[in-house]
Amino acid sequence: MKKFGDMTLADLRTECKKRGAKQDGRKNDLVDRLEAYVKNANFGRKDDQQEKAFSLDVPEPSTYRDINLDTPLPAVTRKLVDGYLLSVDADLKQVSKSLYEETYLQYRQSLP
């Protein structure tokens, strides 16, 4: 790694220009900028460091068993459905009412 701190301001600007980095600022700024560039120069590259290929051993599909195949479904009756819909409808009516009232109050407050 180059010692940027030992370089002149003109040399630092030349190095920044080579890398397409900003060339303005104090010497310390240029040194920091170049050191950060060198530190991150290989970021996202896979030049020398090839990642190990991911592999997953999966059993044959014929060895799988559907665990829900033998599970009985619960009986669904009209009474259960009506009870559920009544509770949902009551909640929706309350939400609608509160939204309406909130909007109405905002409208009233905005009137002169």
Automatic annotation (TrEMBL):
Residue stretches making up the SAP domain: 4-38
InterPro entries listed in its UniProt record: SAP_dom, SAP_dom_sf
UniProt superkingdom: Eukaryota
SMART domains reported in the protein's UniProt record: SAP
Entry protein name: SAP domain-containing protein
Species: Littorina saxatilis
Lineage of origin: Eukaryota, Metazoa, Spiralia, Lophotrochozoa, Mollusca
